Structures are given as structure tokens and as C-alpha cells.
Amino acid sequence: MKGEVSAELKRKSIHVIPGFLAYPVIIWIGRLAGIIISAFFLLLYTLNEISLRKGLNIKVPIAYDTYKIMARQEERQGRYFTGTIYFWLLTLITIILLDPQRAVAAIMISSLGDAAAAITGKAIDGPRWPFNKRKTLSGSLAMLATSISSCLIVGLQLPTSLLASLTATAIEASTRTSVLDELTVPLALLLVLLFSP
Q1: 46, 70, 110, 111: most buried by Cβ count inside 10 Å?
Q2: Beta strand pairing status for 128-129 and 132-136?
Q3: Per-residue pLDDT at 28
Q4: How far, rounded to the nearest angstrom, does the alpha carbon of residue 71 sit from its chain's CA centroid?
């Protein structure tokens, strides 16, 4: 168990970077900077994915190094790292479509909330959800608390914060693979924050 927690901490130490940088980049520097950075990482991870899947053995800077640290066993065996493409594509779309405050909240939840769920779920192996035995109640509670905090820190109203956080937590708990929650959680947040008052 201790080894699993350590491995998850190592993986998520990279996963949280966008969450911590979203506010200073998008709010202080500007939305255009966020769009450029997201597009840049989307390009890098797309090139890395092509290299992995085609067996080209091209080590794309940053993306390949991240892959070596973050990839799970099934990703290494299957030679894919698709979750990063989902994440950066949805991050790019989120910054384009949402106002800066909501975009930051969505990115923080997708980054920090997901990390909190994964680390806590490994560290406190308590009751598991009956509909998804891969996910724990403790992980979901950690994600919910982190998500609400993230929304409130950026200044979203409490009802919007609760709606976004509960939706993201429910989607994360329901998603069966770690690759797909890089798609389902940001997409759900984008839709909720785009159409909520």
C-alpha cells in the first residue's frame, strides 16, 4: 500500500501543475497565454502519442519525460498516453469557451480534484462505491472538498461551486479508467459551467 501511495504521489506531482498555474496564467497574464500554452502542450502530447503508437521511438521533449513518470502499467504495455491529449484538448476548449474565472475553476478541479481523489483513495483504502469498485468513498470526498475549495478560491458563487464540484465528483467516481476520467471530468465541467447561471 505504501508503495502505491508513493507511486501515485509521484504521478500526481505533475498532474497538479496545471491546477496551480491556471490562476496566475489565465487571470494575471491573460486568456491568450492560457490558449497558447494549452495548444503547445496539446501538440507535444499528440506528437508523443503518435510516436508511442507507431513505435517510432522519438522522445518528444517534455511529453516523453512526463510519460516515463506518469504512465501506468497498462499505458506502458499498450504504448499509449491518451489521457494527456484529452486533458489538454479540453483545457484548450475550456479556456476558449468559458470566462476566465470559470475556466480556472474547471482546470483546478480537473487537475487538483482528480489528484486528491487518486492520492486519498490509495492512502485510505476504505469503502468502495458499489457501482465502481475501482473508486473509494474517501477519494470522492477528497475530490469534492478540493473541488469546492478551488471554486470558492477563484470566486465562484456557492451554488455554482457546489453544482460543478458535485458533478465532477460523481463523474470521476463513475468513470472506470484513469485515462477516460481525463475526458469525462473536464467535459462535464465545461458543460456545467458553460450553461449554469
Answers
A1: 110
A2: antiparallel
A3: 97
A4: 14
